[in-house]
From TrEMBL:
One of its GO terms (cellular component) is membrane. Keywords: ATP-binding, Membrane, Nucleotide-binding, Repeat, Signal, Transmembrane, Transmembrane helix, Transport. Residues 207-441 form the ABC transporter domain. It comes from Phaeomonas parva. It is found in: Membrane. It holds the Pfam family ABC_tran. Residues 1-26 form the signal peptide. This is ABC transporter domain-containing protein. PROSITE patterns: ABC_TRANSPORTER_1, ABC_TRANSPORTER_2. One of its GO terms (molecular function) is ATP hydrolysis activity. InterPro entries: AAA+_ATPase, ABC_transporter-like_ATP-bd, ABC_transporter-like_CS, ABCA, P-loop_NTPase. It is a multi-pass membrane protein. It comes from the Eukaryota. Belongs to the ABC transporter superfamily. ABCA family.
Length: 544
């Protein structure tokens, strides 16, 4: 966008306006206006340059034909334009430095925040950021996800908060940002729509209210990407953020890296507020979802470039680059330009960009997308070593449950911009998967309808036992987790194995993917994207 804007401005000011002014100068009625306007146009360097080139050629021709031209360095030939350009270079560069300074950055952030907060007030769509923790309802699940207690005051099922998420929110609310490597408290990010969208929405408001008492959401005006996330990640922890497309994972990481300005709440990295970019940048490595690499630079050059930006001195940057190339198995491609890389190798290079400069905290946005299984596993061991040996804190987003299980000490699933559950993979399975699955291989005679096996199921495994799949001699049975503990299931089968005609059996718990799909169903807006999910009322974690 910046490149296009600059090219367009150069074209408009250095060519179109310049030509227009020259034409207007030659017409008597507009000449006065043009002379006035030219003074203002000289604020734009491309205009000054174009004007100087014209003056040089006019002066040259006057010299050649009439012999009365001026010296090229004369004030009216290149003297004035050179002085203008020199002054403008100094002034504009100073303005740029001021605009890029942390203080002005914070001010711009504050203004952007104010604008979105104003819009939120204006477009009250009944879907504002969540109520403070204390006022919210929450439900407590027992070990099998059953509801034990529900506090009153829930206006909306969407406002319910999981007990683990609530505990985390409480913890960050009472702790200090310095206690955590990464700290989020009530973090919300709302993207503002275009001004045209706002106007259209406001004009249509009376119409919508007349049509329905329920307020319509206004995605063209406001897109609430992250809504009140509270999270504290401690040093050395590997935290996995899961969620379907559009759940708000990238937005959360972008707030932490200050790529986008948060709307409300607090966000800190290594105890420094994310607005304090001078401090934060030194400590963070970021591998964005879209590769931050330059197509015409080689891996070695790219890493050296980012290394220097991170503040490595020229003597040590070479060694750092070599160690990363080796670590990521990129030595073979180190001197080829990035454009020629495969998708997976580009991804590895992006990971390298995040790793250079010894960061204390790593944000990895879908780092393994496109990597082959071998590369993925070596990335896993690299991440594990970083967190275990060097105590680097890592937050990664992924769509691979396998990756989460392999790496993450804790996992959070985001739905519609909120954290819906939190905990280790084992904890999530225990809380949200209500069923064990038992796979039987049975004798043919026992498996007949009304036979010994069916009688055994009904009598010994309880009324909740349900046959999910059957092709003799195999039979898969689902048992609600609330029916009996794991030990009792084994006991019952072992005791009656022979009379039920069971030849072999295995008991398994569900997978993290099942937990994830259960939550994914909840995301209202992006429903169409969860392929294969059957939407029904009984959601995961809610046995209402
Ligand atoms: N610049 C933007 N302007 C407006 N809306 C945006 C912008 N960036 C993201 N969004 C919206 O915010 C929501 C969250 O987007 P985000 O990129 O954080 O999702 P994600 O969880 O990273 O998804 P994915 O798995 O596809 O990467 C989406 O609905 C998206 O459309
Ligand atoms: Mg994303």
């Amino acid at each position: 966008t910046a490149q296009i804007s600059i090219s367009s401005m150069n074209f408009v000011m250095g060519f179109v306006t310049l030509l227009g002014m020259q034409i207007m100068l030659s017409i008597e009625e507009t000449a006065d206006f043009a002379r006035e306007a030219i003074e203002w146009c000289r604020l734009f360097p491309p205009f000054v340059l174009g004007e100087a080139l014209i003056d040089i050629s006019v002066n040259y021709l006057t010299n050649e034909i009439l012999g009365s031209g001026k010296d090229i360095w004369h004030w009216e030939v290149v003297g004035r334009p050179l002085q203008f350009l020199a002054m403008e270079a100094v002034v504009y560069f100073t303005i740029l430095l001021v605009l890029e300074s942390d203080k002005v950055g914070a001010l711009r952030g504050a203004l952007a925040r104010l604008y979105v907060q104003l819009l939120e007030k204006l477009v009250d769509d009944g879907d504002a950021s969540p109520t403070p923790i204390a006022a919210r309802s929450y439900r407590l699940g027992n070990a099998h996800g059953g509801v034990e207690e529900t506090k009153a005051g829930a206006a909306d099922a969407d406002d319910e908060i999981d007990e683990d998420v609530l505990a985390e929110e409480m913890e960050v609310a009472t702790a200090s940002a310095r206690d955590f490597s990464v700290y989020l408290r009530g973090l919300s990010k709302t993207y503002a729509g275009s001004l045209a969208g706002v106007v259209r929405h406001q004009l249509g408001a009376p119409l919508r209210w007349a049509r329905s008492a329920k307020r319509a959401p206004a995605p063209e005006v406001l897109k609430r990407a992250v809504r009140g996330v509270g999270l504290g990640v401690r040093r050395g922890e590997v935290f996995g953020l899961l969620g379907i497309n559009g759940a708000g994972k990238t937005t959360t990481l972008s707030v932490l890296t200050n790529d986008v300005v948060r709307t409300s709440g607090a966000a800190a990295v290594c105890g420094f507020d994310v607005d304090d970019q001078g401090e934060v940048r030194k400590r963070v490595g970021y591998c964005p979802q879209i590769d931050p690499i330059f197509e015409l630079m080689t891996a070695r050059e790219t890493l050296a470039f980012y290394g220097r930006i991170k503040g490595l001195d020229p003597d040590s940057v070479g060694a750092a680059v070599e160690s990363i190339l080796e670590l990521l198995d990129l030595t073979l491609y180190a001197d080829m330009i990035a454009r020629s890389y495969s998708g997976g190798n580009k991804r590895k290079l992006s990971l390298g960009v995040a790793l250079i400069g010894d960061p204390e905290v790593l944000f990895l946005d879908e780092p393994s997308t496109g990597m082959d299984p071998g590369a993925r596993r070596s990335m896993w061991s690299c991440i594990e070593a970083l967190s275990r040996r060097r105590k680097i804190t890592i937050i990664l987003t992924t769509h691979s449950m396998e990756e989460c299980e392999a790496l993450c000490t804790r996992i959070g699933i985001m739905v519609g911009g909120r954290l819906r559950c939190l905990g280790s993979s084992q904890h999530l399975k225990q809380r949200f998967l209500h069923a064990y699955e038992v796979e039987f291989r049975i004798e043919e005679a026992a498996g007949a309808p009304g036979g010994a096996f069916e009688r055994f199921l009904a009598a010994r495994l309880g009324p909740g036992a349900r046959v999910v799949e059957r092709h003799s001699p195999h039979c898969r049975v689902s048992l609600p987790g609330t029916a009996m503990p794991l030990g009792r299931i084994f006991e019952a089968i072992e005791a009656h194995q022979e009379e039920a005609g069971v030849l072999e059996y295995s008991v398994s718990q569900g997978t993290l993917e099942q937990v994830f799909m259960g939550f994914a169903k909840r995301q209202r807006e992006e429903r169409g994207q969860v392929a294969g999910v059957v939407y029904e009322d009984d959601d995961v974690g809610e046995s209402e």
